Every structure is written in C-alpha cells, then in structure tokens.
Amino acid sequence: MEKLSEDEVTKRLKNLNGWEYKDGSIERIYKFKNFKDAFSIMTRIAFECEQQNHHPDWSNVYSSLNIRLNTHDAGGITDKDFKLAESIEKIVNG
Questions:
Q1: Does residue 93 register a pLDDT over 90?
Q2: Other CB atoms within 10 Å distance of the CB of residue 45
Q3: Does an H or E element contain 68, and which?
Q4: Beta-bridge partners for 22
Q5: Are 49 and 78 contacting, i.e. CB atoms less than 8 angstroms apart?
Q6: Which of 62, 66, 67, 91 is nearest to 81 (CA)?
Q7: What value does the mean pLDDT take over residues 80-85?
Q8: What's the pLDDT tens digit per position in 47-78?
Q9: Burial of residue 69 (number of CB atoms within 10 Å: 0-12, 13-18, 19+)
Q10: How much is the mean pLDDT over the chain?
C-alpha cells in the first residue's frame, strides 16, 4: 500500500465532511447523545475494522468518539485509511 502525498490527502478530505489532516493521520471527532450511543457505534465500527483488517487509533470519553487513521506499515495515510473513513461515515450517518 503506497503512502499518499499531502496534496492528495488534502484533496480527498474534501469528500469527507468533518475529517481533518493532523499529525500524519486523518482524524474526526463524533459527538453522540450519550455513552450508550457512542459505544454502540464503536461496536459497529469495530466489526467493519475487522472485516477490512484495518484498525483505528481511537478513544471514547462519555458521548465523544475520537478516531485517527493512518497506515503504520506505509508510514502515513493510504487508500486503506480513506476506505475505512468512508465506511465509518456510512455507519455513523446511516
């Protein structure tokens, strides 16, 4: 998997509302009504991550979910990260 250039990352982020390029990763923070809603979405995302064999750096505090994606093996952001981000958007936004 080939690492994308910063220009390519910036260009592709225009199609992912709310995602940002930060410190070598693409990142998004989601806010939910409560912990149960946040954790339910995390569980659904976890199954998708397993299916794609690509796992985020993420954290959850009460109703907030922070997701950071990069491909460690490639040393940066790849198509794999954008594919997972798009899947996450579909899960969160139905």
A1: yes
A2: 21
A3: strand 64-69
A4: 25
A5: no
A6: 67
A7: 98
A8: 999 999 999 999 999 999 999 999 999 999 99
A9: buried
A10: 97
Percent of the chain with pLDDT over 90: 98
By C-alpha distance, which of 31, 34, 5 is closest to 18?
31
Residue 92, both tokens: 């969160």
What is the DSSP secondary-structure string of 13-46? HTTSTT-EEETTEEEEEEE-SSHHHHHHHHHHHH
In the three-class reduction of DSSP (H, G, I as helix; E, B as strand; rest coil), residue 94 is classed as coil
d(CA 20, CA 40): 24
What's the confidence (pLDDT) of residue 62?
97
* 20, amino acid identity: E
Count CB-CB contacts under 10 A for residue 44.
13
Q: How far apart are CA 87 and CA 66, in angstroms?
A: 15
Mean pLDDT, rounded, for 9-29? 97
